[in-house]
Amino acid sequence: MSKKSVLIITILALIVTLSITYVSCGPSEPSEFVTYIDEAVGFSIEYPDGWHIETHKESSDVKVSIWEKEFGLNPVCIMVAKYAASGHSLESFSEFQIGVLPDIAEDYVPISTEEFTINGIPAIKHIHTSTISPTTYKSVRVYLLSNGTGWILGFNSPKKSFDSYKSTFNISLNSFSLLE
Q1: Which of 44, 81, 43 is nearest to 62 (CA)?
Q2: CA distance 66 to 42
Q3: Rounded to an integer, what distance in angstroms lies between the CA atom of residue 80 and that of residue 63?
Q4: Residue 154 contacts by C-beta under 8 Å, 6 or more apart in sequence?
Q5: Is 12 within a domain?
Q6: What is the pLDDT of residue 1?
Q7: What is the DSSP letter of 163?
Q8: Domain range for residue 51?
C-alpha cells in the first residue's frame, strides 16, 4: 500500500471518528433527576441533576428558573411562575397569557394549543417559537389554575435542538406537583 493510500485511509478514519463523536455529543437523556421543592410557594418539580437553579425574589411572578448551563449562549431552561388569578377560568387565564406573547416575544409564531391534565389538574399546553436575536427558540408553556392561583410551566430550547430535550421536558412536566 502506498503512503498516499495510507494517508487517505487515515484521514477518512479520522473524519468518521470525528463525525461519530460530534453526533453523540448532543444532549442526551440525563441519567438522574432531582426534585426541587418550594414549600413557601407550594410546588415541586423534577429537573436533571447538575442543572443550575435560580430562585427569584418574592415580588417576581417567576419563582424558579432551572438552566442546563450556568453560563453560555442559547440556554435551555425550565421555569415555574405563579400568578394571582382569582375570577379566572383556566381558559381565560391561558388566553390572557398567550395573548401577551406576541407583545413580548420577537417573531412569535404559535404552533399548537391543547388541553390535558397534570396529576389530575386540568391544563392547557401552548407551543410556539420566538426569536431572541439571533436565536430562534421553541417554547412550551403549560397553564394550570388551582384555587384562584395560575401557574405557568415553561420549557425553552433553541429550536434546532428542541427535539433532543423533549424527554427531559416531559419528565419535568409530568413531575410537577402542587403541595398541600
Answers
A1: 81
A2: 17
A3: 6
A4: 77, 78, 79, 80, 81, 139, 140, 141, 142
A5: no
A6: 53
A7: G
A8: 32-178
Q: Is 77 helix (H, G, I), strand (E, B) or coil?
A: strand
Count up the domains in the chain and report the number. 1
The per-residue pLDDT string of the chain (180 residues; one tens digit each, 9 = 90 and over) reads 544 433 333 333 334 333 333 333 445 556 799 999 999 999 999 999 999 999 987 768 999 999 998 777 778 999 999 999 999 999 999 999 999 999 888 899 999 999 999 989 999 999 999 998 889 999 999 999 999 999 999 999 999 999 999 999 999 999 999 997
Say if 123 falls within a structural domain.
yes
Burial annotation 7-30 (CB, 10 A radius, 16+ → b, else e): eeeeeeeeeeeeeeeeeeeeeeeb
Helix (H, G, I), strand (E, B) or coil at 171: helix
171: CATH: 3.40.1000.10
pTM comes to 0.81
Contact 113, 58 (CB under 8 A): no
